[in-house]
Amino acid sequence: MRGRCDDSGAMAVEVVILVPLLVMIMVLVVAFGRYVSAEGDSQAAAREAVRAATLERDPASAAVAARATATAMLPASLSCQPAVLTGDFAPGGTVTVELTCAVSWENLGLIGLSGTAEVRGTSSAPLDTYRRTDL
C-alpha cells in the first residue's frame, strides 16, 4: 500500500477552479449576444427609417418620418440617439439614415465589463427619379 496515490478531494478542487471559469465564459457569451442583437436592431431600424423617409415629399417630413419609424422599431432596452437623415432629397438623389445606439454592459461586471459600447446602423436608399415634389 505504500506506493498507492490517494485522489480523495481532487474532484472538489477541479470544481472550485472550473465553475468560476465556466460562469465567466457564459457572461462573455451574454455580452457578445447583447452586442450582436443591438447591432442587428439598429441596422433594421435604420433600414425601415430610410424606407419611410423615401416615401415622403419633402426633407422636413422625411426627417420626421425617419425618426418616428426608427423609434418605433427599436426595443425599449436599447438606448439610441434620434435618427439622422442626410443626403440629396431630390428626384434621383440618395438619402441615408444613420442611427447610433449604446449597448449596456450592466450586470456583466463579473468579467470586467462596465459602461456601454456604441453600435451604428446605417442605410441608404435612392429616391424615385420621376417623383413629384409639388404635391
Describe this structure in words.
The protein has 135 residues and is of the alpha+beta class. The protein has a single domain (10-126), classed as Pantoate--beta-alanine Ligase, Chain: A,domain 2 (2-Layer Sandwich). Helix content is 44%, strand content 21%. It has two helices and four strands; from the N terminus they run ααββββ. Strands 1, 2, 3 and 4 form a four-stranded antiparallel β-sheet that branches. The longest helix has 45 residues, at 10-54. The chain is rod-shaped and about 90 Å long. The termini are far apart. The model has no long low-confidence stretch (mean pLDDT 86).
Could you provide a short overview of the structure?
The chain has 135 residues and is of the alpha+beta class.
Question: How would you describe this structure in keywords?
Answer:
135 residues, alpha+beta, Pantoate--beta-alanine Ligase, Chain: A,domain 2, 4-stranded antiparallel β-sheet, 2 helices, 21% strand
Question: By helix and strand content, what is the structural category?
Answer: alpha+beta
The percent range for strand residues is 15-25%
Strand element count:
4
Total number of domains? 1
Let me know the largest β-sheet.
4 strands, antiparallel
- End-to-end separation in angstroms reads 99 Å
Spans where pLDDT lies below 50 across 5 or more residues = none
Rg to the nearest angstrom? 25 Å
Overall shape: it is: rod-shaped
The CATH class name reads Alpha Beta
Instruction: Give me the CATH fold name.
Output: Pantoate--beta-alanine Ligase, Chain: A,domain 2
Mean pLDDT across all amino acids = 86
CATH architecture: 2-Layer Sandwich
Listing every helix as H and every strand as E from the N terminus to the C terminus, the arrangement reads HHEEEE
Number of helices: 2
Helical percentage: 40-55%
